[in-house]
Specification:
- The chain is an all-alpha fold.
- It has helices spanning 2-20, 36-56, 61-86, 91-119, 123-129, 131-134, 143-159, 164-167, 170-183.
């Protein structure tokens, strides 16, 4: 029975590695596809698959970052952007889609935050309280998780400027961006 669990764990890690891509936050198969409609229709299934694999491998940093990447990309391109076209004709539907995008951005932030918390236990709590000093813990290898955490938080803030609790986290975005620039101004 123990070897069965080990084989299952190895299989799950293998799938997680494949879904995580090259460790930079995602597979290039979506980035290189020349059919954006196909990508947009495939992403929800891929995101749910990633979440399913994360239930079995919750400490897989690469998959956490790839999942954050996927949620930010999906929210931006296939939820938030189309909502802007709705604003003129259906304000309430547009607002509903913006709030959906915000929720997806926050979900992405959660996954990237989990990846950062694996390396630096309790980090996301410190980040909210003391952003300028908390970011000093980072090293260059943390840039993919930093990037997607920052992108997710920044887009959530800008999607709903009326959310005061979220708006005050703009200082977190600033601290993360400044640290990322200090670590490698040419990254990605």
């Amino acid at each position: 029975m123990a070897s069965g669990c080990s084989i299952k764990g190895m299989a799950m890690n293998s799938v997680a590695n494949a879904l995580a891509g090259g460790g930079d936050g995602g597979s290039n198969v979506y980035l290189t596809d020349n059919d954006p409609i196909l990508v947009g229709e495939a992403l929800p299934f891929s995101l749910k698959l990633m979440e399913t694999i994360l239930q079995e491998t919750p400490e897989h940093e690469g998959l956490l970052v790839a999942t954050a990447t996927g949620f930010v990309s999906y929210a931006e391109m296939w939820v938030l952007r189309p909502s802007k076209y709705l604003e003129r004709t259906d304000f309430y539907s547009a607002r509903s889609e913006r709030m959906r995008a915000k929720a997806l951005f926050l979900r992405a932030k959660g996954y990237a935050g989990e990846a950062l918390d694996l390396r630096y236990p309790g980090f996301t709590d410190r980040l909210v309280r003391f952003p300028d000093s908390a970011v000093l813990e980072f090293e260059a290898e943390d840039l993919p998780a930093i990037y997607w955490y920052t992108a997710a938080l920044g887009r959530a803030i800008s999607t709903d400027l009326g959310d005061a609790d979220l708006l005050v986290q703009g200082r977190v975005v600033r601290a993360l961006l400044e640290r990322a620039l200090d670590l490698d101004p040419d990254w990605n």
